[in-house]
Amino acid sequence: MTCLLTLEVDMGDRGPIPKRSAERRRRNKDDGPAIAQAPSGPVNVPALPEPDPNWHDIATDWYLSLQQSGQAAFYQASDWATARYAAELMSRILSTDRAPNGQLVAALNSVMGSLLTTEGDRRRARIELERQPAVKAVPASVTAIADYRSSIGG
Predict the structure, then answer these.
(1) How far apart are CA 52 and CA 81, in angstroms?
(2) Position 43 pLDDT exceeds 70
(3) Are 32 and 126 in contact (CB under 8 A)?
(4) Could you give the C-alpha distances from 142 to 18, 63, 120, 136, 151, in angstroms and in order?
(5) Which residue has the higher pLDDT, 27 or 145?
(6) What is the DSSP annotation of 98-149?
(7) What is the gyration radius of the CA atoms in the chain, in angstroms?
């Protein structure tokens, strides 16, 4: 007789990407754990090793961009070590002349997802980066226009 085992899986990393808290309509339903907020710009990061000079340019750019990203506020030393590992793996994938191996690309995407590098990964983890408000142009005041007209003789 064969016994089948079932595994229970938390659904935090599957399914549709949740909306940002500002985009949600229903506010009377409990959405689960509170959403952690962090600034979207650079944060104070510990002294980190420089990127390996042998890395591919894209891997170097990705690694350096993590230091300027808001989710870095949540990173610990082990997360930075994981980021170096991901950059090394990315560099090896990008530096080969052969077509990318699908399993390696999937593994890299998984590591990058665990570092919350995309907005979808952060939303699933209930982390939102506060977006900087767009700078709006201030319209010229009526007095400034009237002064301008009078200065040109109008």
Answers:
(1) 13
(2) no
(3) yes
(4) 44, 50, 45, 18, 14
(5) 145
(6) SPPPHHHHHHHHHHHHHTT-SHHHHHHTTEEEEPPPPPPPPPPPHHHHHHHH
(7) 24
DSSP state of 54: T
| pLDDT for position 83 | 94
Amino acid (one-letter) located at 14: R
CB atoms within 10 A of CB 63: 23
Q: Interior CA angle at 82 toward 110 and 12, to 5°?
A: 40
Rounded Cα distance, 35 and 121, in Å: 13
| Cβ 44 vs Cβ 77: under 8 Å | no
**pTM: predicted TM-score of the whole model, two decimal places:** 0.62
CB atoms within 10 A of CB 90: 22
Question: Which residues are paired to 129 by β-bridges?
Answer: 38
Contact between 116 and 127 under an 8 Å Cβ cutoff? The reply is yes
Interatomic CA distance for residues 68 and 39, integer angstroms: 11
Torsion from C-alpha of 62, 98, 53, 66, nearest 10 degrees: 10
